[in-house]
Every structure is written in C-alpha cells, then in structure tokens.
Amino acid sequence: MSKTILHIDGDSFFASCEISLNHKLKGKPVVTGQERGIATAMSPEAKALGVSRGMPVFRIRKELPQVIITHSNYTSYGIFAQRMYDIVRRYTPLVEEYSIDECFADITLAIGEFGAPEALGKAIKEALNRELGMTFSVGIGPSKVLAKVASKWQKPNGLTVIKQEDVRTFLKDVQIGKIWGIGPQTTLAMQSRGIQTGLDFIEHSKDWVAANFARPIVEIWHELQGMSVHRVNSDSEEDQSSIQCTRTFTPPTQSKIELLSELSKNVEGACVKARRQKLCARRIHYFLKTQEFRYKRKEIMLVNPVSSPADIMHEINKSFDEIFRSNTTYRATGVTLAGLVDDTHIQTDLFGGSRKVQDWARVFEALDKVDKRFGSHTLMLGSSLRSLRKYKKIKKVFRIPSMGEVN
Amino acid sequence: MEKRILKLKEFYRSNRRMPTYTEMMKLWGYKTKSAVAYAVQKFIEEGFISKDRSGKLAPKNLNDLKILGLIEAGFPTSAAEEMIDTMSLDEYLVENKEATYMLKVKGDSMIDAGIMQGDLVLVERGATAKSGDIVVAEIDGEYTLKFYRLKNKKPYLEAGNSKYPDIHPKQELKIEAVVRSVIRKY
C-alpha cells in the first residue's frame, strides 16, 4: 500500500526558541552559541546580514555589532522539541522523533478525516506555529526521502506536497548531493557517472544502481521513485527490523563510568525486548550524544548473534574509547540491535563460541521470569546500577518554559 | 496515558456511558479518529476497557488507575469540585500542555482581579480569547496583562485597576496568550 509521510523541520530552531521565549528579540538578528564561541543557529534577520553556521562569535561581534548573541539553552530547546512531537501525535501516533528540530510522521491513515494531505499538513503546521510561537517547514511525500525533499523545498515557513505524479518535476531541480542520505563521497561517484540531479538518478534502472552502489543507495532510489522503504520509526511499531533503546539523562555528564552505566541500562532494555520476541542481534550500533546534539556512533559486527546484555556490554567496552572524548559533555546514549535473527536458528561456530552464549541465555531466561513476577529491573547487571538509581529519582517532570515578565 | 484514562473515568461517571470516538477526540485533545482508535486499542490491550462484539466500548478496570500512577504526585482536593480523590497540580493548572508558558507579573494593573506583583501566571499560547478572559496582549512591541473585552464587536483591553485607562488598539489587537491559572507562594 502506498504511504504518505510528513516531515517537519523547525526554521532556525534554536534561535526561534530564544525568540519565542523573549519577544523583545522578534524581528532582530539573533544568533545562538555564545558559550561555544561559534554560531549554532541564526534567525532569518541574522542570515540576511551574512552570519552562517559555525561563524566565530568574535568575528560576528567585530563585523556585525548589531547582532544579538545568546547562550544556548538546551533545556528549553528540548522542551520545544518534545512539544513539537506531542502536537503531531494529536494527529497520528506514528511519529519518529528524528532529531531535536525534526520529526517524521506516517499520516497515511489520518488524511481521510481531513480530505487532502495539504489540509492535514496545514492544520499541523498552524497548531505548531500558534502554540510554540515559531515557524516550521512542512513537507509531505510518498516516502521519507521525498518528504524531506518537500520540507526543504520552501523554507522558512513552507508547506510543500509532492504527489506521486509530480515526483519527476520536483527531482529535476534537486541537486543529487542535497538528497537526504547521499553524502559527499556518493555525490562524487554519482557526478562521475553523469548524475547531477535527483531526476538523473531515478532515470537509471534499479539493476544499474544496484550494480554501481551499495544497498542504502538502492533504498534511496526506491524512496525517490515514491516507494516507501524506510518506515517511520515510532516506538510503538510492532514489526521490527531493529530494536532500539535510548535515553536522555539529566544532568549531562562527562564521566565515562556514568556513560557506560547509561549504555548498560539501554542495552538491558533492548535485550529484554529482543528476548521477548525470541530474537538475537548480529549487529550492535551504539551512540553517545553530546550536549551540542552531535552524535558519536559505533557499529559492532558479531560472530555469534547475541541477546544477552553482558555479551553486548563486553563488546561495547572494547570499542568505547574510540568514540569517547574526555572533557566533552554528553546528554544521551542509545543502542540499536540490528540484523535480528530468530534465536532458534543460531549456529554453533567451529570453536564452540556459542557455548558461552547459550549459558547466558539460560541465565537471562531465569531473569525474565523473575522480572515478570516481581516487576522490571528486580535483577540486573551491576554496571546498570548507577544509572538506575538516578533514573528512579527523576521521573518524567512536566516543565513550563518562562516567557519573562509582563506588566 | 493516565490522564486519558482519568478523563474516560470522569466521563463515564457523569454520563453513565462510554464516550464516542468524536467525544474522545475532544476529551483527549486529539485531532483525528485514527489517533483515538490507536489509543483505544492500547487501553483494551492494557485491560482498562473492553469492546463487545458489536464494537461498543465498556469500562473494565478504569478504577485501577488511581493506584497505578496518581498517588505519587497526589494532592487532596474538595471532592465536589473534581470528581476524583487525588490529583496532580500539573493537570489541575494546565489544560493544553504543549501550549503552556509562564510569565512573572510586574506592577499592579490587575490587582482587582486578584493578580499581584510577583505572581506567576500560566498562559495558553494561541488560544482564542473570549470577552472577559485575562490575556497577554502585544501593545507597541510590549506584552501586557489585561482583561479582554468586546464592545460593539470591537475588542479592547481593560486593566483590573481603575487607575489605568482602557486600551483601544488602533490596529488589530494581537493576543499572544490566554491566562489559565495564577500561582502565588506565601
């Protein structure tokens, strides 16, 4: 069945959050990132003056003294992000919290009640604008990649719908390197084969693409044709090709021990889900997210599929130092179990490597029974303890941003 | 989720029947029936409500909820006002979570409305103001807290203090938010 996907992108998000909470900044050139020494977001007025992302603060001060430079306030940006996701959830439960200023939603089933995708997109966009006090660019298309093309089409404050029959007209004007998922290397490879635009790309046959590029690029080819391959990854999806567990913690930390404990808890969480469905993972992705919302990622390929947190933590410990930096503040960790296989199909390798895995399997089978009887996290890995102690204390708190004073 | 179950429970108590999907949309602030249908399915799976063969909903364990989550942030209130035994302050003070902001009050222009300097007001951004509401309006680039009034269908602002004159806007009156609650600590 064909799908309709919505993508929402906050316009100059961090700067817009600052302006939303301080109306005196409205209409002025505003730049965030003072504490980092570089511009992290610019209001349209600041962009018009020539400020670009990453421009050093001292240079802005010197050359453009009229620009207002503010500290980043990640707590309030996080609240605005959460509110954005929750507002979209009034329309459909299938929402993917893609990043702090972006989300995807599968609106296939919700459109009927609004008559047309434009009407639904407009309703969501207006609710966001009205309640959050800032603008968003909304794109709608038959796949995630096309929805992203659409949201970029008209920025800021745009609403663009790409219908199946208009796909080629749109892609004719999209540079291949601007398409989501196509990096600089692939762009060069495409250009050397004469592909400049999205349309050039989809005019090649699937076989040709498969012969010249890796699988992710073939998937993009499908998505650009209007065939939805990448599903909207809301937590509630039952049919899973991967299992994910991530958590943002407060306060942020620089401590390696804290981070490993957070990861450990996420690994345990993901493994419970995996075992419940009798699945084992062949690949493990994990990430650390910094205070500046930058991701440091690592992927581990496993010889034997696993579903035991102890085995996974053992692997993570081996590579952790490759992505961990001291003197960097982190705010979230996450783990994804991918390459999932039915745990009954596990083969024993020649050297008995899966023996140990099976022993663990029995331990965790018992653990799941204990959890079922006495509640979750009755028994756990020692390495998760620290994170859990903290977790119990900070239950989900409803935070209200301040808009300053009023006479 | 707890809030949604609670709303169901309240509805059931006062109407002696389960709400329709359209009523649930209003009750929960949802904008589509498919979002309602999804939540209903969840509640059936969790055992709070059940569905009979004709597709009609019935309450099942709606009363269990009190024990599940609300006690922790619990706060006793007069039973007549709210038909629940405990409540959370968030839920009492805030209607639309996503649109709620706070502002600190300066000055005495709303003193007759019982709003004093230093009070915190919780406001709902983008809500439609009705005559008599206390609103945050934008006048000459500044926010001001006043009564919203309509005279011959023309809106103007009135202070809650006779010392201050009414404000009749020259152009369109921009209402930023509507006040939902006032908080004062002693």
List keywords for this structure.
heterodimer, A: 407 residues, alpha+beta, Dna Ligase, domain 1, 5-stranded antiparallel β-sheet, 15 helices, 14 strands, B: 186 residues, Arc Repressor Mutant, subunit A, Umud Fragment, subunit A, 6-stranded antiparallel β-sheet, 5 helices, 8 strands, 26% strand
What does this molecule look like?
The complex is a heterodimer of chains A (407) and B (186). With 407 residues, chain A is an alpha+beta fold. Chain A has a domain at 243-393: 2-Layer Sandwich (Dna Ligase, domain 1). Helix content of chain A is 41%, strand content 21%. The longest helix of chain A is centred in the C-terminal third of the chain and has 22 residues, at 353-374. Chain A starts with a strand and ends with a strand. The model of chain A is unreliable at 390-395 (pLDDT under 50). Chain B has 2 domains: 2-93, Winged helix-like DNA-binding domain superfamily/Winged helix DNA-binding domain (Arc Repressor Mutant, subunit A, Orthogonal Bundle), CATH 1.10.10; 97-183, Umud Fragment, subunit A. The longest helix of chain B has 14 residues, at 2-15. Chain B has helices spanning 2-15, 21-28, 33-46, 65-70, 89-93, and strands at 49-51, 57-59, 100-105, 120-125, 134-139, 142-151, 154-158, 174-183. By secondary structure, chain B is α+β, with helices and mostly antiparallel strands. The model of chain B is unreliable at 65-83 (pLDDT under 50). Classes of the chains: A alpha+beta (407), B alpha+beta (186). At the A-B interface, helix 4, helix 5 and strand 14 of A face helix 3, strand 3, strand 4 and strand 6 of B. Strand 14 of chain A pairs parallel with strand 3 of chain B.
